Amino acid sequence: MYATGLCSINELLTEEKNLSTLRSERNLHLKTRETLINSLRVYLADSNDNIARNSYEKITLITGIPSRYSSTVIENRPDYLQEESNIKRIGFDVSAAKREFLPKFVIYGQIGLNSYHLDTLFNSVSQFFNAGILPSMDLFSGGRKLALLRYRKFEYEEALNNYKQTILECIKELNSSLTAYKTASDNYEESLNRLKSQKEIYNLMQDKNSIGSSSELDVLYAKQAYLLVKKEEVSNKINSVIAVIGLYKAAGGIDLYTLSDNL
Question: From its phi and psi, is residue 107 left (phi > 0), alpha (psi between -120 and 50) or beta?
């Protein structure tokens, strides 16, 4: 168009600038892809063979995952099991610890939950240190026994504090992961609707061009708009896949479809 005098030099420079930006973005995507493939080779301990990549269209997005879980789901997480084993090791009754410190409520994936003071869940007074048991003392070994008792008490307190902190972190991560999954799923559905509408506009512009009602440039602009929306759809689908993986990890690596049975 510039060569035939149908557009100004400013319009030409703007298009060249947009083209340069898109090329830079493409180069960044290629670099990121190579980085991820090399990282995957390291994880697989296989640096020689080529890793086969699948088509984006063949990626199956997991749907129908329950949108609420019981807080007791965290009992499947390795970090919780580790702290549970720790308090069992020093002599605590695990069942009593669960009753007192593991609150039972339904996690809905609410954005505001993590801003609450979740430590108020442990306002109940612990009964572990109020058993009313006093050690028998004698004249010569009483100081040693008292020091040992004080040491054991500090050890118990540290174990319980770690146990409670782990519970809080597990609940926060599960809620955050569920929130991220819901948000990613909603965004993906919205991007599908936008993509459908933009596809219809692109098809309409092609039809108009076939009967001489629009120029080839109009078709290219419509295709560009469609590809931009397609890029958003791809990004949202990938975010949904990542969100499912994060939720799977936060739930302790068990079948997400069975978690609603714990309510």
Answer: beta
Q: Same domain for 153 and 182?
A: no
Residues 65, 43, 36, CA angle at the centre, nearest 5°?
75
d(CA 9, CA 103): 68
pTM for this one?
A: 0.71
Which of 196, 70, 263 has the alpha carbon at shortest distance from 204? Answer: 196
Taking the C-alpha atoms of residue 92 and residue 90, their distance in angstroms, rounded to an integer, is 6
Please enumerate in sequence order all residues whose Cβ is within 8 A of that of 113, keeping only pairs 6 or more positions apart, or say none: 107, 172, 175
Query: Which residues does 79 contact at the CB level (< 8 Å), separation at least 6?
Result: 166, 169, 170
Tokens read off for 255:
């079948």
- Residue 2 resides in a domain: no
The number of distinct structural domains making up the chain is: 2
Task: Judge if 29 and 79 occupy the same domain.
Answer: no
In a domain, 31, yes or no: yes
pLDDT tens across 164-174, in order?
A: 888 888 888 98
Are the C-beta atoms of residues 177 and 247 closer than 8 Å to each other? yes
Q: Tens of pLDDT along 45-104?
A: 766 667 777 888 888 888 788 888 888 888 889 998 888 888 888 777 777 777 767 767
Range of the domain at 245: 9-63+178-262
